[in-house]
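hi! just following up on the protien thing from before. the input was this:
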Amino acid sequence: MQVAEKRGGSIVFGPYCFDLKTAELTKQGRRVRLPGQAAHILLLLLERNGELINREELQHALWPEETFVDFDRGLNNAISRIREALGDHASSPRFIETLPKRGYRFIAEISVREHSPTGPAVPPEPDRDPPSRLPRIHARAAGTALLLLIAAAIGIAAFDQGRRHPQAQPRPSRP
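and the predicted 3d structure came back as:
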């Protein structure tokens, strides 16, 4: 998914919403403080949800080649700030998975919410990329609803049939 094409919207995951235009993170409508580089890394991880982003890619995205910086320390600090903001832990991640010495991957399911020109957001649409990360509950819920609908239709038909053709009452025997 190229979220960059939808810069006017938001990415929703769990109780969080990341506004693509302002790079602000909110939790249930309340702003969560996330410094610039940490917000940029979170955006990169969200844009490539489910994919490994190696440390070199993050370095090139954050710091120009001429920049002299302690990259490992800066990246580790930014990831720590993101985890702190999300209430996530490296030992039992819900959002950001660490692949030691390789990179990071955003592992939670996301949805993209597009904002209309007037402001209000249209309902979120499930992320269609990658398909293996789609929630499976929708198919189960649809199947359950279909079975309930069929059972209700059968019940109504049986009730209606009973009203139209009442069972014959036994006639009293004549002496």
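The two ends are 86 Å apart (CA to CA).
The chain has two domains: 3-129, 135-163.
cheers
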